[in-house]
Amino acid sequence: MDVLIIERSGPLGGSVRVGGAKNAALPIMAACLLTDEQSIIERVPRVTDVGTMANILHGLGLEIAWEHDALVATPGPVQGWTAPYELVSMMRASICVLGPLLARHGRARVSMPGGCIIGPRPIDLHLKGLEAMGASIEIDHGDIVARADRLKGATIHLGGPSGSSVLATANVMMAATLADGTTIIEHAACEPEVVDLANCLIRMGAKISGHGTPVIHIEGVSKLGGARHRIITDRIEAGTLMIATAMLAGDVMLEGAMPEYLGAVIDKLIEARVTIEGSAQGIRVHSTGRVKAVDITTLPFPGFPTDLQAQMMAMMAVSDGVSIVTEKIYPERFMHVAELRRMGASITREGPSAIIKGVDQLGGAPVMATDLRASAALVLAGLVADKQTQLGGLEHLDRGYERIEEKLSQLGAKLRRERASLEDECRPMLQCN
Ligand code: EPU
User: What b/e string do you get for 207-245 counting C-beta neighbours within 10 Å, with b at 16 or more?
Assistant: First the structure.
C-alpha cells in the first residue's frame, strides 16, 4: 500500500491542465449499453472508479479498450444483464447501469448498493422513476431485479428530501431515451455532469430537451447509435486545485477549468479574499495565502458542491476567523473532521454543521483517508502543515483524482508517493482492534 509524503509547500505557480470529469464519465460509460454500435468517449480520467465501471461493462458484454485518453466501448456478440455484488459494492455509481439495461434488454439484475462512509445513500428515487415507466422491481437476495417489456414514457417527480438526485436523473433519463412515448422528469438535477450525459445521448440519437433545467423532456426513440463524445473537465478537481492555491498562496492557471461550473465556489473564494479570473481558457487563481473565514452550505448545483466541502473545511481550518460549514446533501459527510483535528484544527460538530475556528498553524501527522474527498482535504491540510504529513488510504484518493500529486508537484507543491513501511501498513489494523 502506498502513502503520500506531504511537506509544507507554497507559494504555487504555473499552469496545469484539468482532466475529464469522473462523475460525467461514469454515467456516460453506462450509456454505451444503450446501443449495439461502438462508442468512443474522450478525455476519460484514469481513475479506479472508471476501471470498476469498465469491468462492469465488460461483464455485460462490452469490449473496453483505451486509445490515449479515449475509452472505446464495442458491443460484443453476447450481452449480459447482471451487475454482480463484487463490483457494485466497490462503487455506488454502478447503479447507473440499471436504467440502460432495463431499456435495452427489458430486464436487469443489479446488486443493491449498500451503506457508504459518507452516510446513507438511498436509491428509492431511481426505483420510483423506473417503476413510473412501467418496470416491475423486486429485491431478491440483495439484488435489484427489474423487468419491463418496453418502458413507457411518464411524468416523474424526482425530488427527494435533499433536493434533486444526480444519478437518479441520469438513470431515468437514460431509460427514457428508448421508452415508448414522452417522459418528463420534474425536479431533475441540473449538474453539469447530467447536461454532459444528455449531450452525449443526443449525439447517440436521443431526443432530449430541458437538460440543465429542473424539467427535462425525453421523447423515446426505437434505437440509439454509437457516438464520439468528449467529457467535460472535472469541476471538483479544478475546485480542489483552486482551494490549494488559495491556501498555499501563489498564482496558478487551471487550463480547461470551466468558470460556469464553479460559480458558487468562485463566489466563496472571492469572499475569502482570493482573486479569481475566469476565461475561455480556464480559471486563474491568485492568493496571498491567509484567507478570511467564510460560511458555506452545500446544495445541489448551482449551489456549493458537497464534493468540495471537505477541501473547503481544510482551508477554513487555517483561515482568519470562525466559519460554519453546513452539509445539506450528506449530513454525515464529516469523516475528515477527526483527521483534521489530529493535525491541530479546531472544529466542533453540531449536527449537519461544523464550526471551524481558524488556527495559525496545522501540524503534520500520520493521517488516514476515509473517502475520496476527505483524502483531498488531508492532502491540502498537509501542504500547509509544519513538519511532514503521511497520508494513508490512498485507494480513496485514486478512485477519483487522476495523478493529483503530479499536478500539485507541477505547481511547486512538495509531495511524493512512497511504498508504506510495514508499520504504516499495520497501523489501520491496529487502530481497528
Ligand atoms: N437521494 C435520495 N434517494 C435517492 C437518491 C439520492 O434520497 O434515490 C438523496 C441522497 O441521499 C442525497 C441527495 O439525494 O441526500 C443527493 O444525492 P445524489 O443522488 O445526487 O447523489 P449521487 O447521484 O448518488 C453524485 C456523485 C457524488 C456527489 C453527489 C451529489 C457520481 C458518481 N456521484 O452521487 O459524488 O456527491 O452526486 O452531488 O456522480 C464524489 O465524487 O465524491 C461523490 C460522492
Answer: ebeebbebebbbebeeebebbebbbbbbbbbbbbbbbbb
